[in-house]
Write a sequence for this structure.
């Protein structure tokens, strides 16, 4: 196995880069791909940057140029359900592009000429990722998070959820917008900007993939407040701890 690990933001991969053994970095298409061993797993880490095109290009090159056999995406998301709280983790069972709309030629959300609205993630890899996330929340989170941040963001009882994540080239920052998406997609758990693009690429190339998102906000008018602080002090620790647990699981 060669595992591709994609994140949208620098803060989420910094720790992984530092943990990598024998790291070498190759630049291609305005991105740095760092290859090496992560807890005995042959891995390639890369920042996609933000948005579906950026993520699709990154996933494609990971497979076609860097030979990864599996892809995991780590990042943050806005909540798409009242039971999904800031500080929870969502592991995707399926992903959908919420800004895909080729009506009246095709039904809303359907990716034209695939017949699909939803792309299912790889079940075995997603099980391992959800298990790794759960292990992190149960035993590691309290050790690595600053108690002040636990208090500030209300991270007392974080949980792992599994279900539908929707992606689009929009930061959702209004209650009206997220409510309108929820009305159209009742089983929505989280909104972000890359996962469904990686899903479509992996589906088309036949590569197993999984997506984890730490919920950073409620996709409402307060979504951008404290966003970078959350990424730096919380989501970066979640991503590091979960990927480490995942590599331990995959290597054993
Ligand atoms: N990533 C994190 N929060 C988000 C939001 N509210 N909308 C889109 N992507 C996000």
């Amino acid at each position: 196995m060669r595992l591709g690990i994609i994140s949208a933001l620098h803060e989420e991969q910094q720790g992984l880069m530092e943990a990598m053994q024998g790291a070498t970095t190759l630049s291609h298409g305005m991105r740095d791909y760092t290859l090496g061993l992560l807890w005995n797993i042959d891995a390639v880490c890369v920042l996609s940057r933000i948005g579906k095109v950026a993520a699709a290009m990154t996933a494609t090159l990971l497979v076609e140029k860097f030979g990864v056999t599996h892809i995991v995406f780590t990042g943050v998301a806005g909540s798409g359900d009242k039971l999904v709280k800031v500080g929870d983790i969502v592991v995707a069972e399926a992903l959908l592009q919420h800004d895909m709309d080729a009506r009246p030629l095709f039904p809303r959300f359907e990716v034209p000429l695939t017949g699909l609205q939803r792309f299912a993630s790889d079940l075995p890899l997603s099980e391992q990722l959800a298990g790794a996330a759960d292990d992190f929340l149960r035993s590691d989170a309290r050790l690595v998070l600053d108690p002040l941040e636990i208090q500030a963001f209300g991270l007392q009882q974080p949980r792992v959820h599994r279900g539908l994540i929707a992606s689009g080239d929009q930061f959702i920052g209004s209650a009206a917008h997220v409510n309108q998406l929820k009305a159209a997609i009742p089983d929505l758990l989280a909104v972000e900007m890359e996962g469904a693009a990686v899903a479509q690429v992996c589906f088309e190339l036949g590569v197993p993939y999984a997506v984890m998102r730490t919920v950073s906000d409620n996709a409402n008018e307060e979504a951008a407040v404290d966003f970078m602080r959350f990424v730096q002090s919380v989501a970066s620790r979640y991503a590091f701890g979960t990927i480490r647990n995942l590599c331990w699981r995959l290597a054993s």
In short: The domain at 74-251 is CATH 3.40.50.1580 (Rossmann fold).
